[in-house]
Each structure stands twice: as C-alpha cells, then as structure tokens.
C-alpha cells in the first residue's frame, strides 16, 4: 500500500507537534503565504506552500511539470516489523491519484465511467434509505455524536454498495481505510502501528477475495468494471489473474474506497459543524431547503476536507516568481485558494447565501474529483433529512469540538448534537 515515491524519512516528535498544530488550524499559515511574495517554504509540510487561487490553478493546469507521484506521500514511515506485516497484504502499486500521463488516463477512465451521472442517480435511493435508517436509530434519543453515528457511517455504506461489497463486509473495509490513514499520517507507538497494519492487511485480503470472485463471475458493480478494464487478462474469467494483477487491483480498490468515504464523512462533519456555529443560517436552511445546494458548496469552500495534496516538479519551473528546481515538492492548498480574497469576497465568512463561485474543494484539471457528484448528493440528502427531521438541533455544550489533525480529511473528531 505504500506509495512508490517516498522522498524523505519520517519526521520526529517535535516536528509532529508543529505539524499537528498547523493541521488543526492551517488558515493563519495560508493567509501569511498568500500575502508573501512568491511561494513560502513551510518546514512542517516539508514543501513549498502554493496558497493563492491563481497559483493553485496554474499547478493543476500543468501536470506535465507538476507530477502527482508524491500526492500521497506518507508523513510517517513505519519500522521493519510493521513493514513486514504490511508485506503480508496486497497493494503497493501506483494508483490513479499518484500517476501521471497515459497511465493516469488509463486508470481514471473506468472510475469516471463507474461514477457517471446515471450510475450516481441509480445509487441515490440507496443513499436516502441508509441515511434515513441511520437517523431513525438516534432520532428519539435527543442527542447523538453525528460523526460516529452518521458521518462516519453513510459514505462507507454507499461506496461499499458501489464497489459491490456485501453490506456485512463494509465495516471491515471501512475500518481498514481509517487504519490505513492513521498508519500513513499519524505517529503512533510501534505496537499500535502493528495493530493498525493488521487491520489494513485484513482489509486488503478482503478486497483480494472480491477481486478473484468478481474476476471469475463479473457482476454489475465497480469492482467487476475495474477488473475488466484494468487487469490485462481481466476480461477473460478463464485466465487466472496473476499475483501482480491482484496486487494492482487491490491497490486501485483500496484507493477508491478511501477516496470515496473518508472525504465525504469529513465534509458531512464540517458542514454540520459550521451550520451549528451559525444558527441563523441553520434556521434559514430549515425554512428554505432550496438553499441546500448552495450550503453544500459553501461548506466545501469554507473548510475543504482535502486541504491540499503534494506535487513534485519534473523540470525547473518558475511559479509566482519563485524558481523551483527539478524534484521540488509543493503543497497545492485547495483550502487556501478557497479563502483567497482575490477570488472570493469576504472569504473568511461562512455564508450559505453567497452567489455560486468556482471553488477548488474538489480539485481541478486532469485529477479533478470524479466523485464530486456522488459526494454532493450525499450532502444534499443528509441536509434535506436533518433540516426536516431535526430542525431544533444544536451543538451540545459540554464538550468543545476539536478538529482532527489532518490535511486530507479535515473534520471534527466528534460532533455531539442535541435537540
Ligand atoms: C466531499 C467529498 C470529496 C472531496 C472533498 C474530494 C476531493 C477530491 C480532490 C481535491 C481531488 C483531487 C486530487 C488531486 O488533485 O490530486 C479528488 C480526486 C479524486 N476523488 Fe474525490 N473528493 C470527494 C469525494 C469523492 C468520492 C465520493 C469519490 C468516489 C466515489 C472520490 C474519488 C476520487 C478519486 C478516484 C480521485 C482521483 C482522481 C484522479 O487522480 O484522477 N472522491 N477528490
């Protein structure tokens, strides 16, 4: 599961404390970098911070100069015992988000097809059914942790359905996704890393079972479609998949699974958090549900789940007046571009009534998010149900809301609500 390009060793404990602080509140760093001349090198990110909207767009428009090979570079490198455990799993191959050029197009095509408007429309009733069932489970209680009981549940169930997982297998797959994120991005004692690695390996073996099963008996699901399109012998169930093909297919499925659920869970959490912090806007939304699509866009702009991804230069480049040599690492901050005053009026104000503006929460260009419609639909349905069923909802006061330290799935740790 480890990306091919790892250009550095793990960062030490003090650096992690600083990175933690930056991750929980990156906005002051962004504001400084947007005001500075040229690009700012940020040691915590170990990268040049690309903070202005125009510069972010320029990087995303030039994938031949800014490679995605390091997009998922881990912040933590595990020790030999943990690596040995990971060796029992599957994956460790380039995936759509870390590939460039022709290889990227080849990997992306079946995903775009699998997330076509028709496919998303077909899964919307399932989204509504699952969202309703999750709310039914806590509505009478008068309180809930919206993260644990809703936001962390719905997207996993939806992506599991899209891939073709049996609902009984979804919890193991989703749990494995969270553990993979922890392993790559959170410092932990070795025993905890090992436990996380075991969970990731269990998820990978589960996905491998599906790969072999769907290769032998294809069905109308994304797992079968990916195998048919990407494994060289994939279209013929008579030819057994090689071990290498199984590794590749598990890597793709794992990437798709994580891309689909962790992000959407995060956006459900931050959307509700900011609506609760702005009760008059919540009341307005309850009165005027036609504002829901605008509220989703505003939440994605205001506190983007994916704050940014890295890129690495393939040649000497001048960006915003800063000369970057070949191999320079940049952090392309969608979250900062979305707060750029030259693009958005009053960018630090959360306002669900603002006129539509093109934000970068779902990226842009060749790697732009193919799952954005599905994510928006899940948010729309969530807000329609919560505004109609729990209009009196508000933040529980006894516990302050703490943001998770992450640049890729920004969300509250917990979201205790009462009504
Ligand atoms: C709120 C939810 C989501 C957010 C904020 C989000 C954001 C993003 C962003 C910013 C990128 C661009 C990455 C880059 O520039 O390197 C991206 C790519 C991607 N997203 Fe999403 N995403 C979300 C939901 C989803 C869902 C639901 C799926 C799948 C069902 C998905 C699948 C992907 C995939 C496969 C890529 C890689 C595309 C490529 O490299 O060509 N995302 N997403």
TrEMBL record:
User: Keyword set for this entry?
Assistant: Heme, Iron, Metal-binding, Monooxygenase, Oxidoreductase
Q: What InterPro entries does the entry give?
A: Cyt_P450, Cyt_P450_B, Cyt_P450_CS, Cyt_P450_sf
Q: Name one GO molecular function term.
A: iron ion binding
According to the UniProt entry, what is the EC number of this protein?
A: 1.14.-.-
On whether Metal-binding is a keyword of this UniProt record, the answer is yes
Extract the SUPFAM superfamilies matched here. Cytochrome P450 (SSF48264)
Key word Oxidoreductase present in the record? Answer: yes
Query: What's the superkingdom here?
Result: Bacteria
Report the top EC class in one word. Answer: oxidoreductase
Q: Which family does it belong to?
A: Belongs to the cytochrome P450 family.
Which named protein is this? Answer: Cytochrome P450 107B1
